[in-house]
Amino acid sequence: MENSELAEYNTDVFSMVIVALINKHKPGICLYPATIMGRDLAPRIATAIYVGLTADCTGLSIKDGLLLQSRPAFGGNIMADILSPNSRPQMATVRPNVMKLSESADNVAVVINEDIKINKNIKRVKVIERKIVHDKASAKIENSDIIISGGRGMKDINKFKILEDLAFSLDGMVGASRAAVDMGFKEKSRQVGQSGTTVSPKLYVACGISGAVQHIVGMKSSDIIIAINKDPNAPIFNVAKYGIVGDVHDIVPKLIKAVKKRVKK
Predict the structure, then answer these.
(1) 4-122: what fold?
(2) Which of 109, 166, 214, 220 could form a disulfide bond with 194, CB atoms 3.0-4.6 angstroms apart?
């Protein structure tokens, strides 16, 4: 749809339009991104058409003709598989970056142009002003190709700062586990995991992170994962492509030195 009323996101307008499209085309599945907008929009639509909604999915597949929706449950301690056999459409919000983009020459999407009359009077919210700040500090961690994350094993906020040096030398950003955020090592906006941000960088370095399910859900789709941990049995090594068993406080300074030496060459 192309309409001037859709230029700015508005819950009332967007939900009205999508409900109208669902009622017309009667799809079997509707998916939404688990972003700020998607998390606001999807529940409104589900309520309007009386169907269920599985939020924050980290995996989707088809089983016996039904959409199998996988998501962490009970604080991330288990993965729940959810089916909606009785209501249509089957609806879910899906976290960005949890699935890799695939290409298929056989499947071609059909684009349908629709013209639905929009009632301007249904708007209950109006955007008065928008300000966008472009700087490194406010950059979103999910947009970075390189992320250096620290966990409880970094011990304190001062020792955590060596990760800033490593990230700077690689032109990356610093992330943190929930434990590190709870201990005040890093702000909430840099938290990677189920209750934070899902990321999928080209390189993810986990420093002093044991690898709880909640954290792994948020970074397991990274292209290359390097784990540094003193515990050889830490779960993080199960998803890492490269693992270094040792003290992160000894290893990271050596990595920084090696990277800087290579850059000089």
Answers:
(1) Rossmann fold (3.40.50)
(2) 214
